[in-house]
Amino acid sequence: MPISHNFDGGNIDVIEDSNAQNIQLKIRADANSSFFQWFYFRVHGLNQVPCSISIQNAGEVTYPKGFENYDVVYSYDRKNWMRHPTNFLDGILNIKFKPSQDAVYFAYFAPYSMERHSDLIARTLSASVASLEVLGKTVDGRDLDMIKFSDGKNSKRKRNCWLIARQHPGETMAEWWMEGALEWLSAQKISESISLLKLCDLFVIPNMNPDGSYRGHLRTNAAGRNLNREWENPSAESAPEVFFVKEAMAKIGVDFFLDVHGDESLPHNFIAGTEGLINWSSKKQRQLDFFKNTLKKIDKDFQTEIGYPTKERGSANLKMSAAQIASRYNCLAMTLEMPFKDTLENPNQSLGWSPSRCKTLAISSLRVLDQYVKSAII
């Protein structure tokens, strides 16, 4: 059988794979949930053989528009991920490919494995400004890692800034963004990162959903919970990831919050604010505008024209992280969205939106945070 998926983050079911010209697959739903769209599998033993691969249930996924104008990512070494033309027709995602090696990997976006997560944590902790706290255990018993960045100096002026990512495990671009952020914060020779840590302590959770990441889920944890709908009253049993983070926030405090995600359908990078809060004010609007407009100025991959519709005052969903944190701590709280596709503003045919571009956007975001905490607008 040339198709396999039983590895960290893998997801696919085989309908038919006895003929390379008619490999039929389907995406497996998240455990205890109806969400599905993430896929990640290997084709092996077909070196130099033309393959015709079809994902039969692509039109039934959670976000079918995500496969419109979409090109699949593939890799031979699982380090370098390229784009390959993909056809989405009559609800079927079609990939025609001739492997040049004995094994090639296909995925919805460049995967970010739990093994790579562990390497990232270990590498980050070599920096003197970084320390690790395990906030608790997930449903499957995995560690929920939080990295604190601090220069070790106490000041009443210091802000507590929180960055979290990958509540939805299939949005792997979020942890690629985190890799860029952690590498930049750990590089103590960079004057900007040193400047930022003089003004704030950063609390960073690179992966909010380790169980879903390992299981190959799109949106949920091992209990089938969409973590970004659990922030109002999280259960320690079914959504411990959110429960433990909220517990830590209550002890530490929050002056700034950024939740990093990916959007399946929109080919843009954008920020969603919390304008739907009942106490939304002109000051909060100025803070949001400052962050978004400054990021647009310094990063060509970010834009402010297209995103989610602005919610009317009083319609905020307090089950979601940004709205809950903004309401509870009266601070700037935002959701950063990145595409699974390419960006229309700055397309790259061979890579599309890619890990390296995620990491660059992370550095830009931290530079904007540095300006934000120095400004009078906060």
How would you describe what is shown here?
- By secondary structure, the protein is α+β, with helices and mostly antiparallel strands.
- The chain folds into 2 domains: 3-107, Immunoglobulin-like (Sandwich), CATH 2.60.40; 114-374, Aminopeptidase.
- Helix content is 26%, strand content 23%.
- It contains 8 helices and 17 strands.
- The strands form 3 sheets. A 7-stranded mixed beta sheet has the order 11-12-14-13-15-17-16, with helices on both faces. It has a 5-stranded antiparallel beta sheet with strand order 1-4-10-6-7, with no helix packed on it.
- It starts with a strand and ends with a helix.
- The model has no long low-confidence stretch (mean pLDDT 97).
Q: What is the topology?
A:
Layout: E1 3-4, E2 13-16, E3 23-26, E4 40-44, E5 51-55, E6 72-75, E7 82-84, E8 87-89, E9 92-97, E10 103-107, H1 114-124, E11 130-137, E12 143-149, E13 159-165, H2 173-186, H3 191-199, E14 200-205, H4 210-215, H5 240-252, E15 256-263, E16 270-272, H6 282-298, H7 321-329, E17 332-339, H8 355-374
Parallel strand pairs: 3-5, 13-14, 13-15, 15-17
Antiparallel strand pairs: 1-4, 2-3, 4-10, 5-9, 6-7, 6-10, 8-9, 11-12, 12-14, 16-17
Structure described in brief:
The protein is an alpha+beta fold. 26% of the residues lie in helices and 23% in strands.
The helicity comes to 25-40%
Mean pLDDT: 97
Alpha plus pi helix count: 8
Low-pLDDT segments: none
Largest sheet: 7 strands, mixed
